[in-house]
């Protein structure tokens, strides 16, 4: 068997979570000695202008675009791949995708984003390349589904039941949890980290995360409310939104209880330091926080998959949702009680799954072995991914 197969991971820079999942899977492959990995924002490569337009629309924080996005998400949630809309979406750029596949010649394709042109191609070409889909949400959307998918890796048993009812064969479904980076599965020394970041061990910190592009709204108002109504100090992450960081610094630079950061590669350390995370409802962020047993409050989740993620996790008493500042204050006051915090932490500990990316990689290598029982050794070639992870908070 080929001991260094070629792997294509299809991802996207929409919100950055898809890329973090791809990064976790790629690292797991490399720990196994697999080096020929291409991690690619395939839709951006095939349709750069449409991708940028879609991305800007998705990141737009105005109420109208949020509501419109939520409406489109709901309307297409039951989309079937054999229907007109499904075939249209999955067929976009097929010829260019075929050229990319011909160039890379992958032994397996793993999707962490639902651009399934490779699967649609397989419907007409008869390609036998195994195709895995790693769903990066806690709710099911029809765009992730395609009959050419070999296996789906999903977050929960309830998603499995939903997919079976949608006609997906049970043997195609693996309840693996959502992959997160290895660092978030480890325990760090909190006291040492407090010294490293020059923070006071006698203070309690709320980590306020605006997203990779600083799209969580009402930042200054939220900070003022937290400072006024709780004993938390606030660590503010502005992502790549330099305007937001400058404006926030100008308002709070004289306040010793506010610590403002932008780009960071130390999210796991900051989660370890903090007593609560206040954030938007990106599934990867929430999964990382739960792995760290960090209580989470999602503030005004955006319509679409983020609202779905937040509502599912809240319904299972794993996180809280605040739809306004008054609810936020109530939930912060609940966190003052040790028994309440411990109950939330125990639920998160029981829910979290470790080594999900290793599970996916093991299944991938088994699928390759079945497809290629004996392959001559080939010259090693590392193909650089065309979509690099945006390091820092998302």
Word description of this protein:
By secondary structure, this protein is α/β, with parallel strands linked by helices. About 45% of the residues lie in helices and about 15% in strands. The protein is built from 17 helices and 12 strands. The protein has helices at about 15-30, 40-45, 50-60, 65-75, 85-90, 95-105, 115-125, 155-165, 190-195, 220-230, 240-250, 265-275, 285-290, 305-315, 325-335, 340-350, 355-370, and strands at about 5-10, 35-40, 110, 130-135, 150-155, 175, 205-210, 230-235, 260, 275-280, 295-300, 320. Strands 2-1-3-4-5-6 form a 6-stranded parallel β-sheet, with helices on both faces. Strand 5 (about 150-155), helix 8 and strand 6 form a beta-alpha-beta unit. Helix 1 crosses helix 17 and helix 10 (about 220-230) crosses helix 15 (about 325-335). It starts with 6 loop residues before the first strand and ends in a 23-residue tail after the last helix.
Give the count of helical stretches.
Answer: 17
Helix amount = 40-55%
Oligomer: single chain
Number of strands: 12
The coarse overall form would be globular
Structural class: alpha/beta
Q: Sheet bearing the most strands, described? A: 6 strands, parallel
- The portion of residues forming beta strands comes to 5-15%
User: Spatial order of the strands in the main sheet?
Assistant: 2-1-3-4-5-6
Order of helices and strands: EHEHHHHHEHEEHEHEHEHEHEHEHEHHH
Computed CA radius of gyration, to the nearest angstrom: 21 Å
Poorly predicted residue ranges = 373-394
Overall pLDDT score: 86
C-alpha termini separation: 39 Å
């Amino acid at each position: 068997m080929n001991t260094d197969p070629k792997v294509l991971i299809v991802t996207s820079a929409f919100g950055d979570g898809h890329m973090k999942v791809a990064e976790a899977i790629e690292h797991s492959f490399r720990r196994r000695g697999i080096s020929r990995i291409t991690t690619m924002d395939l839709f951006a490569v095939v349709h750069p202008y449409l991708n940028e337009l879609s991305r800007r629309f998705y990141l737009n924080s105005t109420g109208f675009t949020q509501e419109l996005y939520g409406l489109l998400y709901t309307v297409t949630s039951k989309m079937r791949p054999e229907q007109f809309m499904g075939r249209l979406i999955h067929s976009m750029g097929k010829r260019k995708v075929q050229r990319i596949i011909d160039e890379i010649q992958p032994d397996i394709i793993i999707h962490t984003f639902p651009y399934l042109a490779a699967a649609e191609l397989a419907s007409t070409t008869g390609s036998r390349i195994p195709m895995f889909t790693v769903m990066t949400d806690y709710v099911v959307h029809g765009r992730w589904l395609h009959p050419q998918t070999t296996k789906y890796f999903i977050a929960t048993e309830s998603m499995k039941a939903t997919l079976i009812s949608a006609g997906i064969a049970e043997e195609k479904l693996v309840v693996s949890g959502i992959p997160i980076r290895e660092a978030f599965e480890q325990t760090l020394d909190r006291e040492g980290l407090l010294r490293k970041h020059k923070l006071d061990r006698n203070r309690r910190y709320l980590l306020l995360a605006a997203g990779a592009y600083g799209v969580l709204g009402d930042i200054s108002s939220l900070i003022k409310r937290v400072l006024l109504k709780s004993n938390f100090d606030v660590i503010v992450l502005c992502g790549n939104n330099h305007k937001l960081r400058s404006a926030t610094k100008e308002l709070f630079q004289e306040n010793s209880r506010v610590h403002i950061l932008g780009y960071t590669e130390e999210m796991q350390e900051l989660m370890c330091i903090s007593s609560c995370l206040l954030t938007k409802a990106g599934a990867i962020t929430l999964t990382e926080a739960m792995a760290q047993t960090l209580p989470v409050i999602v503030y005004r989740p955006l319509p679409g998959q983020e609202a779905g993620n937040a509502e599912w996790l809240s319904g299972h008493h794993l996180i809280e949702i605040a739809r306004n500042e008054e609810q936020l204050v109530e939930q912060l006051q609940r966190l003052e009680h040790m028994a309440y915090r411990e109950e939330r932490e125990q639920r998160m500990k029981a829910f979290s799954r470790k080594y999900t990316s290793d599970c996916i990689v093991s299944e991938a290598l088994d699928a390759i072995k079945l497809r290629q029982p004996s392959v001559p050794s080939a010259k090693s070639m590392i193909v650089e991914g065309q979509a690099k992870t945006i390091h820092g908070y998302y």
